Amino acid sequence: MRGGRRSFVKEEIEVVQCAVCKEEMSSHDFTGHNINSHNMLAWLEGTMPLDLDNEKLILSMLNKALKSKKRKVLCCEICGEEKKSAVGFITHKQVCGKSEEEKEQLKISCEVCGKSIMPVSLKSHMMIHQRQSTSDDFDQTIGSPTSTSPSTSRSEHNGRKPKRAAATRAKSRMMDFLSDDGYSVPKKVPKHLNEPKQLYTDMETHGWDSSPRLLQTWRGFISLTGSIMCVYSDCQYRADSIDSIRNHLSACEYIREHNMRFLCNVCLFQHNQESEILEHVLTEHESQESFLSDAPSSSDINSTSEAEVESARPAVKRQNRLSIRPKPPGPQRAFNKMRFLQNTVTSMGKDLEIYNTALQWTFDFRLASYSDKVFPDLVPSKTEWSLLLENLELYVPRATKSIPIQFQSTSQGMSGLPHQFSIFEGQVIDGVSTFFTGGPVWAMEWCPIPMHICLSENSPPSEYLAVSTHHNMDDTFCVPKCYSFPNIIQFWECGNLSSKSVLQHPKLALALAHDYGTIWSLAWCPSGAYDINPESSKVATQSWKRMGLLAAGCSSGDVQVFAIPFPDELVCHQNQRVLPVYKSKPSLTLVTNFTEPSQCTRVTWYQGRGHGLIAAGYCNGMVALWDLETLPPLLWDAEHSTLKPFQCFQAHLTVISALSFNPEYDGRFFMTGSHDRGVKFWDMEDLSAPMTHHRRGYVTDGVWLNLWISSITSYDDAFQHEHTNSTLHPVRDYGYKPYPLLTQNSVAWCLSYNEWINATAQGSEAGEIVVTFSSQLMRGLDNEKSSIDKRIMASYTQLKKLISGNSSTKQLGEVVTWKPEPKNNKNKGKKTAKNAKGKGKRHAQDAEGEETIAASLYTPEAILMERNPQYYADIEKNYGLCVCDVVKGDSNKHKLPEEAKSRVRLSGKMHPTCSDFYPITSINKVVWNPNIGRFFWLATGHQSGIIRIIGMHFMQNETLNEFLIQASETLR
């Protein structure tokens, strides 16, 4: 190396030739060529060739090739047949390309039984004779132990280490001692002698179809394929249960033509000779110990009835590699804990489709749990409901007009000029029911309707949506305090929402005035409160026809239960032509015994049989539980209609933001979520500690899934920016860990789960509605990459600047984008001052001047001058909204816009928000319609006071239509 330059010499590549195929290649490529083309059985031209007659050498080379290959198979160079073992490959190479006569000539005869076998199979064949001879020797020597000399060779004991002489003598003396007392030593039979008898049966023996091992095999075929085929040849009968196949076997017409006698209980292989079936069991199913350990002994079978043997479900153990029991494909493979799902689930599916099995599950649950009449004493009294005429402005929300809102869709474009709604105005715009409530929407629920009324073709009912808003657009609340002020609960009539009907303009049908402040949560009684015939009530003359029971969690600290009448019953407002605002006392008040009152943030009503439980969560982290069916005297105050909780405990450290019951087990289990970043599952019988506690992020909402042993929770993105996801949480990590289900790039304020179609919807502060149509949620989630394709962006909201124009028409301009905070100037000034050290005085003064200017940008006066709008008045003057529907009810699910899926693949691609900007784009509440035949409608409540009812009917298929027809016939 001279002059600082480095010289390189190019390495020459050596060319070699394969001695088997005569192909030339570089020396570096020969190893891969030898493994892939010749299974490590090739050598270089000019080197020592391999000894292909050395069996041990060939086996070692083939095993090395199996370990090196990505696909663990050995491929024949002549015919291309693949083998998974080295012995099988050698056997194939001996007969590859040869005729049947040549194959017979290669076989050799066994010296013991005289059977003709291939040379490679001789070793395994002789092991069978060795086991038989060992069993005969054992039968002769059992019960009469003899001393073994230390010099006895290991070969005389079948390769096992002989027992020490002292141990043998001690055992003999112990037997003599016990025999004096009349004790007889039971004969112990080696394990491998019992194995063959358990793995095959004699079909001429009475009760052969009750073999525990055979019953287990049949159950496996039912769980994987759904049916069992008759064991007799030429019979094509299939059964879906063990009782059916056993009844058929006793009367099958092919019994006489069947010439096989013995049946393998593992793979159902048949043969007419016991020696052949024994050899098949020992060679093919030698390692079936995991199944044999589950099979009961003969004494247990004799003491157990046949019905008990059939009903006993064997413990599920790991499948052995050598077993030929059919395995499900990859997406169908499940955790052992969720094996029961294979009876109903045939495929997880990669396309965007609904989970059809959930339809029948939900229908069966409602048939068993929902009733026609509950709480008959809680009725809307005619004397207590009065039309509000005075001080109406105190109860109605303050905002009389909405900000300009423009609607567009990906397929149709803009709908025209922006709309500015008046308070309580409703329209149908581009197939979407839209109305203005006057304040930020924070509580919203659909009124439940009995299934037989929803499916009635003669008089389909109207759908009602209960809504509660803030009184002012700028209302804020402090956690430790309680608030009581006038407000209303709105009931909007949305018309008949069946798939065959035409959308009607939504209208405010009823408003309930109260003085309990803001309603943070609403919950309808799931069933039994919808009066069909008013004559059925004992007090029909004194009460209105009841539409439902509504529980409201109030900022005043109590839970109020209102008996809501049908709006058609109240006609006072129609005569006077005023707003239908009525005032009434609650039918029941659920109070607490806290030392200091706290706001009620969440309330939920138990969906199981009777609906007697109500749970509420509070700002102080407490959870209270009431039982409406018992009304014990110590808790019930009949004079004031108040009920105290039978259980109250500290669930979290701060605000309860998620609360939901498990619909099974009489409400014993429920989940809670809080702002303390915890998600907990509780058992009501032991509230000292939660069953499961997940700690992930600032919980904003959550729901227990009715069909699965898990819940879904949404979070604030403050702790994991661009990495926050609404998460699926299993109870006690049942089969999988918490799984990210829905993406977000801002605060996800709300969640809603649709049990009919197994769908989940999420609304965020950025104004995005994300929906996922999940498959089963109990297995395979860790490996289900197709779950990303099941998410879609239903709609999103953009904030636009308002262009000044005529007073009657307003136009929206460019989209507002969030600007980063001005940190560069401040950092630049510090860097200049630091670098100015050691330089001239003039440069130091310039650096200090720049630093002073940069610091002045962060004075309180400068921040207030250029800060973002933080009040609704500033938004109303200068901004408007643009709501874009990516998918609509008439969309084609096979041709959805690209942005419907691309926007929700990564959290970073979704819209962000600005923390110091008034959240005008926020979606605070989303609710699926729970009624049968209407469950494709999703109501979305916005911070701007707008509520939109979006349809997802593009997911409807033929299976759903057939289900609705069958459900209607069942209910009829």
TrEMBL record:
Biased composition (Low complexity): 144-153
Positions annotated as WD repeat: 649-692
InterPro entries: GTF3C_component (IPR052416), WD40/YVTN_repeat-like_dom_sf (IPR015943), WD40_repeat_dom_sf (IPR036322), WD40_rpt (IPR001680), Znf_C2H2_type (IPR013087)
One GO term describing the cellular component: transcription factor TFIIIC complex
Positions with biased composition (Basic residues): 160-169, 825-842
Nucleotide-binding in keyword set: no
KW Transcription (keyword) present: yes
Localisation per UniProt entry: Nucleus
GO biological process assignments: transcription by RNA polymerase III
Biased composition (Polar residues): 289-306
Domain C2H2-type, residue spans: 16-38, 108-129, 262-285
Source organism, top-level taxon: Eukaryota
Protein name: General transcription factor 3C polypeptide 2
